[in-house]
Amino acid sequence: MFTQDRSQLRSVYLEAWRKAREGLPLAPIEQQVVDVARRHPEYHALLEAGEAGLQRDYLPEQGETNPFLHLALHIAILEQLSTDRPAGMRKLYQQLVLSNAGDTHEAEHTIMECLAEAIWRLQRDDKPFDEKAYVKCIRKRGGGRRPRG
Asked: Do the beta carbons of residue 54 and residue 14 sit within 8 Å?
């Protein structure tokens, strides 16, 4: 079941990339996938390889980054920004962008480190997502001070 779900999710990325390369219309989520993937040329060959990358495990213990997880974390951050959740996320992001000389991608990567850590803690501790700790992590990594009022 897990493998089937993982493959289906990964297939969304491959299909969106294929459709974009062929100039076909994209659903909004597919457009978001393609926009994020375009900022990651190191993943283009994988996205173009088709089924070959669907079953592969990417092991952090061996220094590997899971490209599908990486892209998904970018998309999760974009969703957080669109809803401003946790509250104040947009402002934190804007502060990160400014502190990174306008580099939105680097700002997302800074947030991503905190999001990955928060997800890891959630899984390890079997507790709900801790928005306060997540926001604190972002601030600590350069997202600015807590707004007053």
From this structure: yes
Return the closest-CA partner of residue 149 out of 91, 69, 80, 78.
Answer: 91
DSSP one-letter string for 83-94: HT-STTHHHHHH
Euclidean distance between CA atoms 10 and 4, whole angstroms = 10
One-letter amino acid identity for 145? R
Summarised one tens digit per residue, pLDDT across range 97-139 is: 998 888 999 999 999 999 999 999 988 999 899 999 999 999 9
| Residue indicated by tokens 């079953």 | 55
Angle at 133 between CA 128 and CA 137, to 5 degrees: 135
Tell the residue number behind the tokens 């803690």, with chain if given.
121
Task: State the sign of the Cα–Cα–Cα–Cα dihedral 95, 101, 105, 109.
Answer: negative
Enumerate long-range contacts of 20-28, CB under 8 Å, 24 or more apart. Answer: 21/48
Predicted model pTM: 0.86
